[in-house]
Design goal:
Blueprint: H1 4-11, H2 24-34, H3 40-45, H4 60-87, H5 90-112, H6 129-142, H7 146-170, H8 174-200, H9 212-220
Helix pairs in contact: 2-8, 4-5, 4-6, 4-7, 5-8, 6-7, 7-8
Length: 249
C-alpha cells in the first residue's frame, strides 16, 4: 500500500526474456490447467457454514486494507477476464474465477462489519484511481502478445503477494487474517501457474516486486503447489465463506 508508486514503476522494468525447455512437470501443469473444473459456485454452495465471527471492531488500518484489497482482487479478475477474451487461453478463465471468489470473500467480511463496498459493478472501473491506471496500463501491456499477458498475470500476483504480506503485518482481527492468509496462498499458486504457463511459451519470468529469493521459494514450495482441478476456486478442506472463497454470490 505504501509502495504503490514503486510497484507501478517496477512493472515497467519487466524485461530479459530467456528461452527454456519444456519439462514433463510443465506439461502436467498445463494439462491440469486445461482440464480445470469451472464449477466454483456449486462447490461453494455445498460448503459448510460460515467461519467468520464478526466480533470486535476493526482498526482504521484494517478498514483501509479491506477497502483496497476488495478492489485489488477485482483488478486481477478484470484484467484476466480481458485477457481471456483476447487470447481464449484457459489459465485466464480459470484464475479470473478464483479472483472473483477472492474479491467476494473480502466483500463478505466488509459486509459483516458494516463497511460500504467501494467497488463498482463495471469491469475495468474502480473507485481508487490507482487501480484505474493499473488496469489501463496492464491490459495495454498484455495486448502485445500472449506471453506479455502471462507476464502481466505474474506481475499482478507478485503485487498481491507483497500487499497481502504487508496487510497481515498490520492486522489483528482473526476474520481478516483468515481471509488474507488464504488469499496469499492463492496468489502464490497463481504466480507459479503463470510462471509455468510462460515456460510453455518458451519464456521465463523475472520478479520485480518480491525478491528473487522469495520468488524461488514460492516456485519450490510444494505445500502451496496443488495442481488439481478446481484449485483456483478454493483450497481448503473446510471450505467456508471466511476462508478466502467468498460466499456464493
Amino acid at each position: 500500500m505504501k509502495t504503490r508508486k514503486l510497484l507501478f514503476s517496477a512493472f515497467w522494468a519487466l524485461s530479459s526474456i530467456l528461452i527454456i525447455s519444456c519439462s514433463e512437470t510443465i506439461n502436467q501443469v498445463e494439462d491440469t490447467l486445461a482440464s480445470a473444473n469451472d464449477e466454483k459456485s456449486s462447490e461453494v454452495a455445498l460448503a459448510p457454514g460460515d467461519s467468520c465471527t464478526f466480533s470486535g471492531e476493526l482498526t482504521e488500518t484494517e478498514i483501509a486494507g479491506l477497502m483496497e484489497m476488495r478492489e485489488e482482487e477485482k483488478l486481477a479478475h478484470d484484467v484476466y477476464s480481458t485477457f481471456f477474451e483476447m487470447y481464449d487461453y484457459v489459465i485466464f478463465n480459470n484464475i479470473s474465477k478464483s479472483e472473483n471468489a477472492h474479491t467476494s470473500a473480502v466483500l463478505y467480511v466488509m459486509a459483516g462489519y458494516g463497511l460500504e463496498d467501494p467497488a463498482t459493478g463495471e469491469e475495468g472501473m474502480f473507485t481508487n484511481p490507482t487501480f484505474n491506471e493499473l488496469y489501463a496500463s496492464l491490459t495495454a501491456k498484455g495486448s502485445a502478445s500472449l506471453a506479455e499477458a502471462l507476464r502481466v498475470g505474474a506481475f499482478i500476483e507478485e503485487y498481491d503477494i507483497n500487499d497481502l504480506q504487508n496487510l497481515l503485518e498490520e492486522t489483528q482481527n482473526e476474520d481478516v487474517i483468515r481471509v488474507y492468509s488464504n488469499l496469499l496462498r492463492g496468489s502464490k499458486n497463481h504466480l507459479r501457474a503463470f510462471t509455468y504457463a510462460l515456460a510453455r511459451q518458451g519464456e521465463t519470468y523475472i520478479p520485480t516486486v518480491i525478491s528473487e529469493e522469495q520468488y524461488q521459494e514460492i516456485l519450490e514450495d510444494s505445500n502451496t503447489s496443488e495442481w488439481t482441478p478446481g484449485y483456483y476456486y478454493y483450497n481448503s478442506v473446510d471450505s467456508t465463506a471466511c476462508d478466502g472463497t467468498g460466499p456464493n454470490f
